[in-house]
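User: structure tokens for this one?
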Amino acid sequence: MASYYVIKSYAAKQNFISRHSSELMWSQGNSKADVYTEADIIIKKDDKHLFQVELMVDVSAIVSITQRNVFDIHIIYTSLVFIDETVSEQERDKILMVDVPSAAFSSVQEMIKQMTENAGYNSLSIDTIDFEHRFRCNQRIVNEE
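Assistant:
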């Protein structure tokens, strides 16, 4: 038996706010927009073995030349996760902070590509976030305290 499994995953919230037309972002004189991506994780414990992991992703696109905001995207992607009772606390934390968000992020990336394309922009591919690195940095900070 696997140490955990995702019971259900879904986009709990999707917001796309367009500030300007797509021509402002990718025109001949401005072939690149600066895209900023932030992600946060919120974990809620439903019972002894059931957890809710919310991956909140914010993406902003800003015109390289004029520094005007083109669009903002906000997505909350929720996963309900069952974790086996034999899993240690450290393993559980890694599952909830690394494994589940990493799997969910690929779905978020696809949603962002579709949202931008459907809004009339070039489809936007955002870089993958290294949740493992973030987890290790967090652990290091906790251990130093």
